[in-house]
């Protein structure tokens, strides 16, 4: 039984293929069409996941989509549905007209069927409410029961939901409806600071550590109210993000309220804007923790699952255990919209099919993308007329380069699914060199100096280096570095003393684990600086040709491409 899941709405579109409860493959369209945060329909992603299983579209049991457009048809539009401009619009105009005759709103799921000539008959296309697909990441967790909280910019109606997950069921317990949106709040300030909204929220999070929130705390606090039952509301007079036909995500009133003009893209960031970023992050966390605390009360569970785009805020995630008190916490590798391809298919299998089989395990393997054989890699090297070697001990050669201060592209195995590179498509460097952070930012990543890099650490050494830390295989949480260890790994310690940690074990990524182990045997340090294998404005590399192009056009010193090693002359 094959189930195709799609994120086909908004940006970062993707496709995933499940066989029963098992996720066989998943990939973001941007990795294949090379358009960062693409909104294109995931044609290439669909073709790839189907080809990996050796099946065709007509072999599928169901196609699941992480958005229920019937909800968008509840408000009748004469222009869109009152008359059709061409006959294909009957696919939604008939449904829209009939919805008006109903006495209640559209439910969570809408289904079409389409006949593609297969022997199994018509295939259902199942449209699942967006936040339910985020919530369905519960099925990746190791929990049989959990409080599930989802936050993002917006779904069909909701921007935040609280649900209870129990075995094969997800029960909605409460929600906050758009336009009162935590994602909208954070994206508005991303734009205010001169960054690109719904793309550069990382920059706001990174910049927040350089400021102190006190100066703007009260002003930010006036922009939102925390309400009973885990609800919250924004003062919408300061924001424009919910008026999709108008440019800009904030109003002039916000600039007057803050006493600061908004920055434009490319502007240098004055010191007071770092203070603003710190206050915005503090406000984000106040709302975030408020909802999570209430979710635990009504679901009566000491396990929490967080999902949705806001769950990419690793700085807040690292504080959840301390601020909210759950005993167990799970955040998936792709909590953003790219992950609803997996979520929609998982929801279909577990909830709609009422199947109690589970994909739950302590670590959900997110190495789900394309992989290239030794022969394919070598063929690419020959096509590009690249001089290369095949070392007898690649790990030792790479570590030799790292300890000499070189920066290495690391391309191994299957591509990661999700925004974080976890040791398959990574740029690596020595964390002991305090100047390494600036070197990688300036000559390789071409990005702002305030952007930190992740410490990839052997899991068994986590508590030696970080305070109150927990296993974090997807680089999803930030923890304080122990004072005694800061001088040992300065390149991966942010200005506030934190690190966005990735724990690496044999189980999660044996190939990457062995490399870090080799580095430790040479240096005594069980940590590598890890960042995604891409340059500013481009998606993470997917293929050997992507890796070679990025290598030759950036300041990378060497590239470990499968079993092969390529170095530049200066190296």
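-> sequence recovered:
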């Amino acid at each position: 039984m094959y189930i195709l899941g799609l994120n086909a709405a908004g940006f970062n579109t993707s496709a995933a293929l499940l066989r029963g409860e098992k996720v066989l493959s998943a990939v973001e369209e941007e990795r294949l069409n090379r358009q960062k945060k693409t909104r294109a329909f995931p044609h290439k992603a669909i073709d790839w996941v189907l080809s990996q299983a050796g099946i065709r579209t007509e072999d599928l049991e169901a196609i699941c989509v992480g958005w229920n457009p019937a909800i968008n048809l509840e408000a009748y539009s004469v222009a869109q549905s009152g008359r059709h401009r061409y006959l294909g619009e009957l696919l939604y105009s008939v449904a829209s007209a009939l919805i008006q005759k109903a006495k209640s709103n559209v439910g969570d799921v809408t289904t079409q069927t389409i006949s593609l000539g297969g022997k199994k008959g018509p295939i259902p296309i199942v449209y699942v409410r967006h936040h339910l697909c985020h919530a369905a990441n519960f099925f990746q967790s190791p929990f049989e029961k959990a409080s599930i909280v989802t936050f993002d910019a917006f779904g069909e109606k909701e921007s935040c939901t609280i649900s209870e997950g129990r075995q094969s069921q997800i029960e909605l317990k409460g929600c906050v409806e758009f336009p009162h949106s935590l994602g909208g709040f954070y994206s508005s300030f991303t734009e205010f600071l001169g960054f690109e909204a719904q793309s550069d929220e990382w920059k706001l999070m990174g910049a927040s550590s350089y400021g102190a929130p006190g100066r703007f705390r009260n002003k930010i606090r006036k922009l939102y109210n925390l309400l009973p039952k885990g609800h919250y509301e924004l003062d919408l007079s300061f924001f424009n993000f919910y008026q999709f036909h108008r440019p800009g995500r904030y109003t002039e009133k916000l600039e007057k309220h803050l006493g600061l003009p908004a920055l434009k893209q490319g502007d240098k960031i004055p010191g007071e804007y770092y203070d603003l970023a710190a206050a915005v992050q503090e406000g984000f966390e106040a709302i975030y923790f408020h909802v999570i605390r209430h979710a635990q009360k009504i679901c009566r569970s000491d396990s929490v699952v967080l999902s949705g785009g806001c769950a990419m805020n690793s700085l807040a995630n690292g504080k959840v255990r301390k601020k909210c008190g759950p005993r167990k916490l799970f955040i998936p590798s792709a909590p953003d919209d790219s992950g609803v391809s997996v979520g929609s298919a998982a929801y279909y299998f577990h909830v709609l099919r009422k199947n109690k089989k589970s994909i739950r395990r302590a670590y959900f393997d997110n190495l789900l993308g394309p992989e290239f054989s030794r022969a394919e890699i070598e063929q690419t090297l020959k096509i590009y007329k690249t001089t290369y070697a095949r070392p007898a001990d690649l790990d030792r050669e790479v570590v030799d380069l790292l300890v000499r201060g070189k920066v290495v592209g690391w391309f191994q195995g299957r591509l990661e699914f999700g925004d974080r590179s976890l040791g398959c498509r990574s740029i690596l460097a020595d964390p002991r060199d305090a100047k390494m952070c600036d070197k990688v930012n300036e000559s390789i990543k071409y990005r702002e100096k305030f952007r930190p890099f992740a410490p990839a650490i052997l899991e068994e050494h986590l508590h030696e280096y970080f305070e109150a830390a927990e296993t974090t295989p997807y680089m999803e949480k930030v923890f304080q570095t122990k004072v005694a260890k800061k001088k040992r790994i300065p390149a991966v310690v942010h200005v506030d003393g934190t690190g966005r940690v990735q724990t690496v074990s044999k189980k999660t990524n044996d190939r990457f684990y062995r490399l870090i182990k080799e580095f430790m045997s040479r240096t005594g340090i069980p940590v590598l600086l890890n960042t995604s294998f891409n340059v500013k404005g481009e998606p993470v590399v997917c293929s050997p040709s992507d890796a070679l192009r990025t290598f030759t056009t950036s300041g990378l010193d060497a590239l470990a491409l499968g079993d092969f090693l390529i170095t530049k002359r200066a190296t």
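Residues 2-68+107-141+339-352 form a domain with the Nucleotidyltransferase; domain 5 fold (CATH 3.30.420.40).
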